[in-house]
Amino acid sequence: MGLLGIFSKKKQPSSTVPPLPDIGEDLPELPPIEDTELPPLEEEPEEMPVPEPPRKAMPGYPMKEMQIPKPAMEKEEPHPAEMTHHFTQGGSIFLNVDDYKHIMDSAEGVKAKISDAEDILRKLHQLKEQKNEELRKWQMTVADMQRKLAYVDKTLFEK
After folding, report:
1. 62 or 114, which is more confident?
2. Most C-beta atoms within 10 A of its C-beta, which of 47, 98, 102, 105?
3. pLDDT digits over 94-107, tens only?
4. Are 99 and 85 in contact (CB under 8 A)?
């Protein structure tokens, strides 16, 4: 007997679906399907304009036009070949002020990335040194264990 009937086997419910009625063999014959061809389409169907859904203002609330914000796109930076107003005079290069600012910003970005790369390399070097030190300690521990085991073997089997 199960605990409060929870774990006992459940009785399968008996099927209460009635059998299908016998309709017999006296069914009427279906009419034959006529093989008809459709005339070829001569003109392209006109596109139906899609109507705008009606806008109804809720009572007490004024109707506002929804403004969909434009996706924030990065400022397109001109390709260096597209920069204009470059001319030289006696070894000096003259640039448009906007082009100069763009070049200076790019140079600062490159300097920042180089600095980040140097920091990452420095941290990698420190990790490598720590790993090598840990490996050296483990090797010394294993060598010490082997030496002690050899001593125990020697003292046990000499007698």
Report:
1. 114
2. 102
3. 778 888 899 999 99
4. yes
Sequence-distant (≥ 6) Cβ neighbours of residue 1 within 8 angstroms? 8
Q: How far is CA 149 from the centre of its chain?
A: 55
- Taking the chain, what is the end-to-end CA distance rounded to the nearest angstrom? 68
SS (H, E, C) 33-99: CCCCCCCCCCCCCCCCCCCCCCCCCCCCCCCCCCCCCCCCCCCCCCCHHHCCCCEEECCEEECCHHH
As a whole number, the mean pLDDT across the chain is: 76
Residue 80 has pLDDT above 90, yes or no: no
Distance of alpha carbon 90 from alpha carbon 50, whole angstroms: 66
Between CA 128 and CA 122 the distance in angstroms is 10
